[in-house]
User: Which sequence fits this backbone?
């Protein structure tokens, strides 16, 4: 093999993706995705359409490196450097990587997954999500306040309302709050010194984190309501930064009351769980959850 042929072979090998890159290729049909030479016309900026505004992940040049277009945001499919242009390029701070889960296709990934607090006092999943929000804001300026979630006193999201129930019914009242650190929660009844359930064997208190980050949802479940259950019930939540509470009245009527039939068919803030008495541990819905 003469010198010229040797140099040609070396040059051809250098054009191949490195072994490290090959390990990042999608498992299915990646050999068909290796980029072929793109025939791009001479770039004339005057022929480009107006550049897009408020792109969440910023702007990038198109596959020919000529006109501006919106970049792909976190979680979107993207094109690896050696692939045919198909999905587009990731935006600023984002990397195009092949993820084993949930698919073997390349996606835009934020290299730093630590949650951050914005100057709007909202907690964002990561710095990339905060930057997306900042780029799409029309008025207020949004920037990084500090790394880690925002510290805040509990804020009431939803709560129970004044409710009418019939003796013998079962019902669930709900309360949702957001706080960081996560709030503790308790239920109280007017005139009762201790937090519920206390000695009330037919009352069950449940709580769990969610449905969103930094939220806690609690329920007060009363089985086989009695006349003495009437009164004002308060949901209270607190952490080191403060507390919040909400109160509502439960009115109890007899089965002979003219209102009993209407209450049975129009339950406002009440959920009939009579079919669930054998499974008292099941999480119920919030009394005012949409």
Assistant:
């Amino acid at each position: 093999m003469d010198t010229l042929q040797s140099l040609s072979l070396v040059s051809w090998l250098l054009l191949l993706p490195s072994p490290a890159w090959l390990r990042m290729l999608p498992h299915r049909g990646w050999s068909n995705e290796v980029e072929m030479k793109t025939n791009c016309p001479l770039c004339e900026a005057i022929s480009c359409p107006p550049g897009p505004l408020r792109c969440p992940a910023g702007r990038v040049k198109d596959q020919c490196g000529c006109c501006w277009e919106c970049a792909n945001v976190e979680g979107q499919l993207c094109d690896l450097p050696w692939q045919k242009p198909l999905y587009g390029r990731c935006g600023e701070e984002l990397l195009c990587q092949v993820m084993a889960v949930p698919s073997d296709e390349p996606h835009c990934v934020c290299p730093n997954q630590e949650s951050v607090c914005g100057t709007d006092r909202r907690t964002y999943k990561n710095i990339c999500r905060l930057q997306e929000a900042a780029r799409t804001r029309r008025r207020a300026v949004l920037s990084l306040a500090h790394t880690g979630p925002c510290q805040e006193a509990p804020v009431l999201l939803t709560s129970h309302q004044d409710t009418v129930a019939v003796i013998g019914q079962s019902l669930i009242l709900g309360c949702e709050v957001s706080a960081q650190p996560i709030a503790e929660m308790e239920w109280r009844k007017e005139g009762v010194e201790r937090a519920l359930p206390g000695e009330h064997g037919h009352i069950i208190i449940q709580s769990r984190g969610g449905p969103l980050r930094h939220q806690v949802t609690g329920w007060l479940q009363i089985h086989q309501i009695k006349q003495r259950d009437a009164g004002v019930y308060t949901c209270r939540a607190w952490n080191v930064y403060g507390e919040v509470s909400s109160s509502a009245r439960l009115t109890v009527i007899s089965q002979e009351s003219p209102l009993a039939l209407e209450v049975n068919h129009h339950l406002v803030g009440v959920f009939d769980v009579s079919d669930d008495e054998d499974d008292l541990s099941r999480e119920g819905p919030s009394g005012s959850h949409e």
Observations:
- The mean pLDDT is 79.
- Helices lie at 3-14, 19-24, 127-136, 260-265.
- The two ends are 77 Å apart (CA to CA).
- The longest strand covers residues 242-253.
